[in-house]
Amino acid sequence: MSDSSLLMSCFLQLEGSTTLFLEQLSGKPLRSAVRRQAEDGNGGGTIRREAVLYFDTADLPVIFSRSTLDLGLFSTDEAEGIRKGLVPLGRILDPEGRGLLRKENMTVELVPGSPDALFLSTAAAGCYVKCYDLVAGRRVVGRVREYVNNESLSRAFR
Asked: For strand 63-70 and strand 139-148, is the pairing parallel, antiparallel, or unpaired?
């Protein structure tokens, strides 16, 4: 198995914090840029967003994600951090990296020719889609879909 295949396998099986995993690989802080965001309700509703996670530039993301989060399950500070979208969810919900985040009901699918692969800014036409319930502590706080391919994941080492 090649290094990139091993790394992808580890990532796809990861049940903990994506942020912590990528930061440990890179040795650099992971950043987030929200591409699109919409909120339902009066401050305690649902937020739907599309974001990229990156190290050097948002134009070369490691991961593209779509998430639906229940803001009523977050503290005021957490909800405000999510709305701002300046740092990854992992740093908002588990800032000390204590293992408070996990993924449940996880599925992984390889999607050749996925239009979502375009958001990764790679030569590859396909990507893996990892979908899961995001659990913070004992609460399911939302549903996340992460899009990644070997080229985008390799950016954790640049």
From this structure: antiparallel
Query: How far does Cα 150 stand from its chain's mean position?
Result: 15
CB neighbourhood size of 22 (10 A): 24
Cα angle, residue 65 at apex, residues 76 and 19 outer, rounded to 5°: 65
**What is the side-by-side order of every strand in the sheet holding 31-40?**
31-40, 46-54, 63-70, 139-148, 127-136, 101-111
| Distance between start and end Cα atoms, the chain | 21
Residue ranges in the chain whose pLDDT is less than 70: 1-2, 42-44
Strand pairing class (46-54; 127-136):
unpaired
pTM: 0.91
Q: What is the pLDDT of residue 121?
A: 95
Among the listed residues 108, 105, 75, 107, the one whose alpha carbon sits nearest the alpha carbon of residue 92? 75
* DSSP letter string, 66-135: EEEEEGGGS-HHHHHHHHH--S-HHHHH-TT--S-EEEEEEEEEEETT-GGGGGGTSS-S-EEEEEEEEE
